[in-house]
From TrEMBL:
It catalyses: L-glutamyl-tRNA(Gln) + L-glutamine + ATP + H2O = L-glutaminyl-tRNA(Gln) + L-glutamate + ADP + phosphate + H(+). This is Glutamyl-tRNA(Gln) amidotransferase subunit A, mitochondrial. Gene3D superfamilies: Amidase signature (AS) domain. It is found in: Mitochondrion. InterPro entries: Amidase (IPR000120), Amidase_CS (IPR020556), Amidase_dom (IPR023631), AS_sf (IPR036928), GatA (IPR004412). Its main location: mitochondrion. The lineage of its organism: Eukaryota, Fungi, Dikarya, Ascomycota, Pezizomycotina. One of its GO terms (molecular function) is ATP binding. It comes from Penicillium olsonii.
């Protein structure tokens, strides 16, 4: 009840649809309380309020994707992840605000207005909550729920976690079902989890980490066994139990754009791990400097195809206009999309349509796919464990490599909302894209990555930054374990 009261008393615009103040959810929480008292809780989240990003379908609440085009849309079914949480006794704590269809890094591209970060800067100014799962992160940070489900295509769970001081986890691609999750870029999309601690996030991950026959990209039971066999074989299991771990620090990530507080938090985290007996090794990921541009070719290309279905006929809102042989001043399809989509979504559809067009595809889309392979290879070359799903990939090969990689989640602390929204100082979209430089490599390679809040004493006051742990494909529990060491 306190969480729901917080949803109404603190307006960070974290929710597009909050929970009703008086509602059926209360009965479900009380039933869970009884089970708790009897010592028979359904799971670690029985009776917990878990908010859900508004691009994940729910039968009982609308799913808008923060878009005009789905403004009044309610799905006829629940996403698998929602069904799984409910079966575990959790209660959906409302639908959280986001950048339209997940496109953005500050949760300001929303039909329902920007999300405000519950943390403000020293002068009391509102800061960006990060994006695109900014509403999910803010709802956790402001105690408006216990934890939240977001989606992470190129950093959308990790970046908001870093900006709001929460924990954000992006699992290996294909582990958590995407059925009922509105697609942005299918080959990159994952469902991620935001919580106050890694332990909370792990509980939820363990509930959701199962094969789903309705999602064709959900990892098969066979492949899951193969991961177990490969990553948890006797020679490697020591990594989960004892020290020391080999920690990698990518030399290329030490960019000049990084602010001093982020640099301090990174150094502090490495020193902390070293003190616990782990060893630090510099590694090279030479192709990751191309990861950002690759991501911003592939993401929009997939999005342009996915978003073609919003035509005013099958889903969502429909604008006025003649159907088919209408006048040059507008047809139903053009009017619906023109009015329904926001500026950033239109930009990406245009970009994606171009890079897939006959004249451009070889130079953009195909090249980007090649670079994506190189980024994946870079990671494979530095991890001790081989990629468990690679052609001949079981077991261990090398002994001079690393178990996990540690780097910042974002190059700087959250920008002020007023600066981002100031129309007199128009920003190039590229400025926003650069924020994703540390998060997109793991997305392109499908690897598990977590962002945890790290506080260091700064020049004047304590400073907070998100530090990221990236691991080999399928090594999700190791990534969370190292994240926990840094909390
Ligand atoms: N900021 C990135 C983008 O705009 C990532 C978004 C995401 O992960 N959904 O595409």
């Amino acid at each position: 009840e306190r969480c729901v009261a917080n949803q109404y008393s603190h307006n960070f615009n974290a929710f597009i649809t909050p929970l009703a103040r008086a509602g059926q959810w209360l009965d479900r929480v009380r039933e869970a309380d009884e089970r708790q008292e009897q010592g028979t809780p359904k799971s670690a989240v029985d009776g917990r309020l878990i908010s859900v990003k508004d691009n994940i379908c729910t039968r009982d609440l609308p799913t808008t994707c923060a878009s005009g085009i789905l403004e009044k849309y309610t799905s006829p079914f629940n996403a698998t992840v929602v069904d799984r949480l409910e079966a575990a006794g959790a209660v959906v704590a409302g639908k959280t605000n986001l950048d339209e269809f997940g496109m953005g890094s500050n949760s300001i591209n929303s039909r329902f207005g920007p999300v405000k970060n519950p943390r403000r800067d020293a002068s009391g100014e509102f800061l960006s909550a990060g994006g695109s799962s900014g509403g999910s992160a803010a709802s956790v940070a402001a105690d408006q729920c216990y934890a939240s489900l977001g989606t992470d295509t190129g950093g959308s769970v990790r970046l908001p976690a870093a900006y709001t001081g929460t924990v954000g986890f992006k699992p290996s691609y294909g582990l958590i079902s995407r059925w009922g999750v509105v697609a942005y870029a299918n080959s990159l999309d994952t469902v991620g989890i935001l919580g106050k601690s890694t332990a909370n996030v792990r509980d939820i991950f363990d509930i959701l980490n199962e094969h789903d026959h309705r999602d064709p990209t959900s990892l098969s039971v066979f492949s899951r066994e193969r991961i177990q066999h490969s990553l948890h074989n006797p020679q490697l299991t020591s990594r989960l139990k004892s020290t020391p771990l080999r920690i990698g620090v990518p030399v290329e990530y030490n960019v000049s754009e990084m602010t001093s507080s982020v640099r301090r938090a990174w150094a502090h985290s490495l020193a902390h791990l070293k003190k616990q007996g782990h060893t630090i090794h510099s590694i090279s990921l030479p192709d990751t400097k191309h990861a950002l541009s690759t991501y911003y070719v592939l993401g929009p290309a997939e999005a342009s195809s996915n978003l073609a279905k919003y035509d005013g006929v099958r889903y969502g809102t429909r604008a006025e206009g003649p159907d088919g042989d209408g006048r040059p001043d507008g047809y139903l399809y053009a009017n619906t999309r023109g009015e329904g989509f926001g500026q950033e979504v239109k930009r990406r559809i245009t970009l994606g349509t171009f890079s897939l067009s006959a004249n451009a595809i070889d130079n953009y889309f195909i090249q980007a796919q090649r670079v994506r392979r190189l980024v994946q290879k870079d990671f494979d070359a530095v991890f001790t464990a081989k990629h468990p799903l690679a052609a001949h990939g079981t077991g261990i090969t090398k002994d001079n490599d690393v178990d996990v990689i540690i780097c910042p989640t974002a190059p700087s602390s959250p920008p002020r909302l007023s600066d981002l929204m100031d129309k007199s100082k128009p920003k190039s979209p590229l400025e926003g894209y650069v924020t994703d430089v540390y998060t997109v490599p793991a997305s392109l390679a499908g690897l598990p990555a977590i962002s945890v809040p790290v506080t260091v004493s700064g020049e004047q006051e304590a400073e907070l930054a998100g530090i990221q742990v990236i691991g080999q494909y399928g090594d999700d529990h190791l990534v969370m374990k190292v994240g926990e060491m840094l909390e």
